Amino acid sequence: MTGKKILIIEDNVLNLELTSDLLLAHGFTVASAQTAEEGLRLAAEILPDLVLMDWGLPGMDGLTATKQLRANPVTCHLTVVGLTAHAMKGDDENALIAGCDGYLTKPVDTRTLIETITRFIALTPLLQTSQNPSEIKHYAR
Ligand code: MN
Questions:
Q1: Fewest C-beta in 10 Å: which of 34, 58, 70, 95?
Q2: Residue 7: what are its φ and ψ, rounded to 5°?
Q3: Domain ranges (residues) in the chain
Q4: Ligand 1 center–CA 100 separation, angstroms
Q5: ω before 125 within 30° of 0 (cis)?
Q6: Distance 23 CA to ligand 1 centre (A)
Q7: How close is the Cα of 74 to the center of ligand 1, in Å?
Q8: Which pLDDT belongs to residue 96?
Q9: How do residues 130-139 score in pLDDT, each as one tens digit?
Q10: pLDDT of res. 99
């Protein structure tokens, strides 16, 4: 997975640093944004292999930002994993409705984060090389 690009969109600086340090230590390239607006701009610019999207952000929230990523032809194919602090009932459903490929609850489990991210990235080429990616992606979500 060395060199895979992860974009972390997270307004909590401690969570951002924790996640970022862990990914860097495992050979990932990391970009980060503390607002959805900046995250959307960066996503279109660097086309990361995976976006970690916090739900609770100042201004535009993570679910709305995910919908916007999906609505933009430049970023619609990106793998997006939601991050929620709440683990509220229905969060998983909301994540899927918004177009996330999955979601993680915070605090992030540092023992499984790398494995989880690696698994999500490994799934992406299967989705993208399909004859009818939109249909496959629909099922995958
Ligand atoms: Mn937050």
A1: 58
A2: -105, 120
A3: 5-140
A4: 17
A5: no
A6: 19
A7: 25
A8: 75
A9: 444 444 444 4
A10: 86
Q: What is the pTM of this model?
A: 0.84
Q: Is the CB of residue 21 less than 8 Å from the CB of residue 56?
A: no
CA 103 to chain centre: 8
3-class SS of residue 80: strand
Helix (H) or strand (E) run with residue 126 in it: helix 113-128
Give per-residue pLDDT as tens, 11-54: 999 999 999 999 999 999 999 999 999 999 999 999 999 999 99
Residue 56, classed as helix, strand or coil, is: coil
Q: How many angstroms does the Cα of residue 12 sit away from the middle of ligand 1? A: 5
In total, the chain counts a number of residues equal to 141
Nearest in space to 65 (alpha carbons), one of 82, 89, 84: 82
Whose tokens are 């939109």? That residue is 134
Any idea what the Cα angle at residue 55 is, between residues 53 and 61, rounded to 5°? Answer: 100
**Do 32 and 62 meet the contact criterion of CB atoms below 8 Å apart?**
no
Q: Which two tokens stand for residue 49?
A: 């292999």
CATH number of the domain at 5-140, please?
3.40.50.2300
